[in-house]
Amino acid sequence: MNLSPWPLTLLARQHPGIPVAALSESRRVLYASPEAMEAGVQPGMRDIAALSRCPELHAEVISAPSAVAAWAELLETLYARYSDRVEERVPGTVFLKISAPAARELAAALHAPVGLAKSLEVAHLAALRAKPGEVREAGCGAAEKAFLALTPAAHLEVIGLTPAHIERLAFLGVRGLADLMKWSAAHCEAFLGVDVGKRVNRFLKGERTKAVQKYVPGRVIEARMGLDSPLYEPSEADVIFSELLPSILAELRGRAAAYLTVQADTLGGRLSATRKLKGSPDPAGLLRIAGLALNDSGALPLGVEALTIQLSGIQQPGRMVGLWASLAELEVTKDVLDRFPEALVKVQWLDPYAYATDARYQWVDWLTGMVRPTAMTPRQSWKPALTRTQARQQAVERMALFFEAVKP
């Protein structure tokens, strides 16, 4: 996922819908949004000159501590909600190991360009060519080769080239990776230098980074207990877990955790195992998950001398209070009704405790309040009983019809 330059992305999210620019300590423009650059704002300008070009510009100095803190919070959120394998290279670029549906969900949630590929380098190139909120998939085999052939020269920094290298290649007429593929390995090393040339040659041969490193969470809640004698039985481990879990839950203070890790110190070293937590399990569920994690580590046959339980991926659980939580601000209902007057209906309760469905509620028009028959309108599942006179009359009519049908 590409969110670079991170200070500009952070500033744009704090002030949506207006041109923004990130300033240096000397009040010069470091980065500017596309809307600001269209108005004439350029990197290196003083803030006063930038405001004269774009009066509605919001220019602000993003301090390094605040940018680092916001980036760390984003990494913790990705670790808690999407994957335990989250790797960052520089602030603004992060790699995750997720599926294609999860990638589309992530792109839509953060409105960020996301690249999907078999290797980290190709995924980065795909993210650079994706639009905000879009997932660009590179494919594999011939599709990946065709995708790489369209890589522009400006994106070659991903495979190790510097801006000076890209400028020299542009002087030679190299427009992208497709032109660089025609060079020989010796030619690349001679022109780009041995280190950069070898890196480019390895990339073109298919030697790329496949694995995403495990994320080391910054916020961890843990409890530890040392043992006088080695532990070998699962039932004894459950007793220790029962002693450790209350202190962890007290420190959790109603928050949710994404992962539970059990670390077991043995004579041969430390073994650990991690389990993904689904929802907010109760203490009995956490006790069972901790036992399963200890069994996954394979430490019991070796003798456990100390046990540690860790909860990571700490986050505040989200609660949806309604379909449109900020209805007054967004005026969603008004906009929908202006375009589609008959689009919305609302329920009118008649008797919530009635046995028949159609006696419980009915759907009415949002504006007029009149009953609106829709596909969701409950239908009568019964017919009112006939009176004695109506039943006798219906019987007479059936007999008359019968004799008329048999008359010669």
Automatic annotation (TrEMBL):
<protein>
    <recommendedName>
        <fullName>UmuC domain-containing protein</fullName>
    </recommendedName>
</protein>
<dbReference type="InterPro" id="IPR043502">
    <property type="entry name" value="DNA/RNA_pol_sf"/>
</dbReference>
<feature type="domain" description="UmuC">
    <location>
        <begin position="17"/>
        <end position="107"/>
    </location>
</feature>
<dbReference type="Pfam" id="PF00817">
    <property type="entry name" value="IMS"/>
</dbReference>
<dbReference type="InterPro" id="IPR001126">
    <property type="entry name" value="UmuC"/>
</dbReference>
<dbReference type="GO" id="GO:0006281">
    <property type="term" value="P:DNA repair"/>
</dbReference>
